[in-house]
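Fold this: unspecific monooxygenase
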Amino acid sequence: MDPSVAIGLGLLLCISCLLLISSWKKGFGRGKLPPGPVPLPIIGNILQVDLKNIPESLCNLAKEYGPVFTLQLGVERVVVLHGYKAVKEALIDHGDKFADRGHIPIFEIARNGLGLVISNGERWKQIRRFSLMTLRNFGMGKRSIEERVQEEAKHLVEELKKTKGLPCDPTFILGCAPCNVICSIIFQKHFEYKDQKFLYLLKLLDENTKIISSPWIQVYNSFPSVVHYLPGSHHKAVKNFDLLNEFILEEVKEHQRTLDPSNPRDFIDCFLMKMEQEKQQPQSEFTIENLVCTAADLFGAGTETTSTTLRYGLLILLKYPEITGKIHEEINHVIGRDRSPCMEDRNKMPYTNAVVHEIQRYIDLVPTNLPHAVSEDIQFRQYLIPKGTTIIPVLSSVLYDDEEFPKPDKFDPGHFLDENGKLKKSDYFMPFSAGKRICAGESMARMELFLFFTTILQNFTLKSPIDPKDIDTSPVASGFGKLPPSYELCFLPF
């Protein structure tokens, strides 16, 4: 072996050992972390995690190390929570101390600590409080969010009719509808589905969803200081984040020119007015940069999650036509064909409501949640977890709990129905996470899912080009998010 190569390898091994020793000292010097598999130098436990199916790997490790265990991903130690009891105890019972956001390097480089998703401390509290209040109060004296969703559902039906009952891939159309709802709330705009500006926005969101759900980004998030300088799809993701920010900034500038404080039109106007109120406060979190990042977070969370759930849900309904038939019966009984579905209908439609719940449980969209972090040293069970430690609550282990949901691997709306056919609520239903960091758009997303699914099935019969028995609902990606396989279906108008 070349002497210089040998020296280089030796130095690399020494650095690796020092990093490992430093990491162990950092963890155990400040606390008693839960048990876990022994990590290797530099790479930690990365070889014990299947990057193509992280949730399954974590569930397997939980069988060996228990419901609370430690992993080392790169040089970062993370504590994994598996099962309802551990997740509830952390996120709800000790919610204040587990409410920080853990490290997500691919988001951190794009957001720089701003916005809703990765911010912490007082910044996060202020931005989240403002966003929740603005979304909740939206439509006072104007169109409510429900009316916006109903309007978009009508546009969706018109677009689906244009397919003329021929086989089509629904990905694009189902992405347009929730994206337009967010556009209406943030920009006060509705885009035609062929509008080039709208198509550009959808392209950025769709590309990044696929990239962030890939195994490569899991590698990036474990070794950002090294992988950042290597070629790979992370560069495309960062560029797309920047382009999305530029897209939103142009809208913000236009809003600044046309703002009427006596008549706020949308989220951007409300944020600009808040900026004006706090302009004398040098430490105010209400800045243009925070507005852009918050709007980008609302787009990322509010578009792709809902569209993916719709797309996955229709695939499942294709596989189980008997379930679709029962929904049609309930729609005919409660709504009929002459009016649009509304949220008041939901309480009168327990079966449809249960199907929407079961779709969210079954697809397990964000299986390992977004990482949390502890905001201070905390005694958790018999362990002492140091401040700043990243926490991974495995939502899969809650949504697939076999005591709460018998035969969890089977799609069964009965998981959410009692013996009288009424909707049965479950504390284990956590597709939006739980506690202080629960998804800020939960109520809007649940509204969209009910109204979009119901409106589609009010107007169409779903038909698969292949035998329903041959439909495979297995996800094609199980990294950050689970993505359904590509498929075609026919929307047959009534």
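The chain is about 50% helix and 10% strand. The first strand starts at residue 68 and ends at 73.
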